[in-house]
Amino acid sequence: MVITHPTNETYLYVGLEFDTVSDVKDCWNQIQTTGFDFISIPLANERRDCRQDDQNNGFSKDLLFEPSVSSDLELAGNIWSTAVLGKIHYYPSSTAEAIPAIEAYVRQQLDWAQHLNLRTSFVAVDVCWSEEQHIFVANMIASALISFPRQSICIRICIDGTWTDSQQNHHNYKKVGGGKVMHHWDIWNLYRQCCDYHPCLSVALECLDCARPSPSQLFFQQWLSEPVHYLILDTKIFLKNRQGFPVLSKSFQSMLSRFLPFSVSILVRGEARHPNGYASYLQYLGYLYSKQPTMEDSYRVEMPYFDYLQAPLQPLADHLDSQTYETFEKDPVKYRLYEEALIHCFQDRVRDDNVVVVMVLGAGRGPLVHAGIRASEQVGVKNIRIYAIEKNPHAVRTLKSIQRSDSRWQQIVEVMEEDMRYWNAPEKADVIVSELLGSFGDNELSPECLDAALARGLLRPDGICIPREYTSFLCPLSSPKLFQEIRGYKNPNIPSPFEIPYVVRIHHGQYLADPLPCFHFEHLPVVDTSSHSEDPPSSSSSSPCRHFRYRRLSFQVHGPIMLHGFAGFFEALLYDDIKMSTNPQTLSHGMFSWFPLLFPLSHPICCNDSECRVTFHIWRKVVPGKRIWYEWMLTEPITTPLHNANGHCYSMSSSTSTFS
Ligand SMILES: C[S@@+](CC[C@H](N)C(=O)[O-])C[C@H]1O[C@@H](n2cnc3c(N)ncnc32)[C@H](O)[C@@H]1O
Q1: Which tens digits make up the pLDDT trace of 193-213?
Q2: Site (Critical for specifying symmetric addition of methyl groups): which residue positions (predicted)?
Q3: For domain 3-295, is the CATH number 1.10.3720.10?
Q4: Segment 263-275, tens digit of pLDDT
Q5: How far apart are CA 136 and CA 153, in angstroms?
Q6: Quick one: 565 exposed, middle or buried, by C-beta within 10 A (0-12, 13-18, 19+)?
Q7: Cis link prior to 304 (omega < 30° from 0)?
Q8: Would 522 disulfide with which of 74, 432, 469, 531, CB 3.0-4.6 Å?
Q9: Higher-confidence residue: 384 or 171?
Q10: CA distance linking residue 199 with residue 146, whole number of Å
Q11: What is the mean pLDDT of residues 526-534?
């Protein structure tokens, strides 16, 4: 009986591990009565197969695989495939000669697991093994993933006593009695890299022992973006409360609450130490799950988009469709902030009964026009004229239909199908309102559109542009999941999927440093428009330098960790001190119109040091009137090739051809 969160409608799956199976039907019936969702069983009958042979680390050369269950008929097919996990039995070899026998033995188990249609098999690795032993096992798993494409392999790593680690732990980890052993995350990183980020490779963190302080920041930074599919909790880690029921220490509770939003499942193992048996463990885990905080509405709206790569919109070159406008319009925060900015602006500036001219440039289906009307009513602006300028003919149709049915619009709104860059306005504006911002601020070509409009003298010399200015921000990102997703991103028109930016709601990812400001643009009235008033902003009239930008950003990253790209955000100053922000540090809470813009790196970069300097370079290049694109590269900790050189994979079109 799956545990359901009372308000979030999310699920927690909990399983029980059996170290031996005498009758798998019994195991299944036992968990059914207790309420567990799945079982983990050994695939091989260890007692018969593991014949001692000291030379080969516990395995004789002629290993014979005997399944732990007598036949696949013991359980129904759908139970095998959905509710049984296999545990592979093997030992790592310390001698190369023993490898073929062990590999053959593991393959037989995987073959059996494939016959049963098990979705996942566990391979336990030991933190006490030498690096070489890990390399042998990683090699075996890498080939198994290729030979058994329907099987997922989950590496089990015990994290006991190693989660409060300082970075020293990673490099000075010593085995009692001598040789160097590896830290749990380094072990996983080795397997993952050896298996080349295989999508069917995941990890289970195993907690067998109870005494430890709370996990460190580094622990979460390293593990929360990894494909941790299971947390394995030994009954030994449970304490007893006053009534004798099993409970977890605060540090385990904090670990669980950080992992649960990432849909991990829990596997309970070990002896039941309570008279009610395993049921009391399950009950407690259900209770903990029910205490997980209720999701915010914006989180719920964003869930279907978690880690889903989207091509950035190009509202200048393309016409947005109705559904996209509808999604924008549902944002509960963005329009409120614009309305507030307009209220403050009207309060500051409207002093007499003269007509206030507002131009909404890129009006879409009119939400900013509505915001302008509401703000003017709130402030008591008596005379107002609003121009709704939109180049998308379909959105203009919507604006005109609103106008037909709304008497206030009929009185004060003029709808015009125009490209703002070339529009000959009948008068100058007191206030220009626009929302042409992309996830990275300037990537929907707000600078090009607004500056062209301003250059034509649309705004009075003392007029106001909302937003007045905006700045993009960037921070380094670790996200193996997004690296995998990008590698699988298929688009025949793109030579390399790592050389284009993506809009993505990053879920399985960790920001590795605070975001730093990148490109800045501001929009002020242009006083002398004589040289621009008749010309469109062709290459002859606008300088290629105007919107060109370059920035070098250096971050301190707390390693060891893998770097996969950079996440981009923006902050916009609408008016006065009213800001709209997607920067996690200054976030406008509840706003979901923009997801971060991800600039990927074509290869994961290892930031090995505890204070690793990461230096990123980014360019915004412009061919006026034609296209704009970003180029990016790293120079620390290593130098990468320039990504998207000359915009060969991705650029934003500013050409006018689409409209003619
Ligand atoms: C991001 S949408 C915002 C729409 C609406 N203002 C809102 O907030 O929901 C940008 C709008 O600007 C329009 N647009 C982009 N470039 C334009 C241009 N040069 N002239 C006129 N409209 C433009 C697009 O067609 C689109 O409707």
Answers
A1: 999 999 999 999 999 877 666
A2: 328
A3: no
A4: 999 999 999 988 8
A5: 16
A6: buried
A7: no
A8: 469
A9: 384
A10: 11
A11: 57
**CA of residue 456 to ligand 1 center, whole Å:** 18
Asked if residues 354 and 324 have their Cβ atoms less than 8 Å apart, the reply is no
Residues having CB closer than 6 A to ligand 1 are 315-316, 320, 328-329, 362-364, 367-368, 389-392, 395, 419-421, 435-436, 449
Q: Closest Cα to residue 511, out of 552, 590, 441, 566?
A: 566
Which residue's CA lies nearest to atom 16 of ligand 1? 316
pLDDT of residue 349: 87
Q: Write the residue with the smallest CA distance to atom 18 of ligand 1.
A: 419
| 435 among known catalytic residues | yes
Average pLDDT, the chain: 90
The pLDDT value given to residue 180: 64
Q: In this structure, what token pair is assigned to residue 175? A: 């085995």
Residues of the binding site for S-adenosyl-L-methionine: 325, 334-335, 390, 419-420
Could you count the other beta carbons within 10 Å of the beta carbon of residue 413? 25
Q: Choose among 588, 450, 442, 454: nearest CA to 517.
A: 442
Tokens (6 digits) for 349: 């500036």
Q: Please identify, in words, the CATH class of the domain defined by 322-659.
A: mainly beta
Q: How far is the CA of 444 from the centre of ligand 1 (A)?
A: 9
Higher pLDDT, residue 99 or 421: 421
Q: State the Cα–Cα distance between residues 598 and 570, nearest whole angstrom.
A: 13
329 is an active site residue: no
Residue with tokens 């003919």: 393
Query: Which residue's alpha carbon is nearest to atom 15 within ligand 1?
Result: 316
Cis preceding linkage at 637, omega within 30: yes
Write down the ipTM of this complex. 0.99
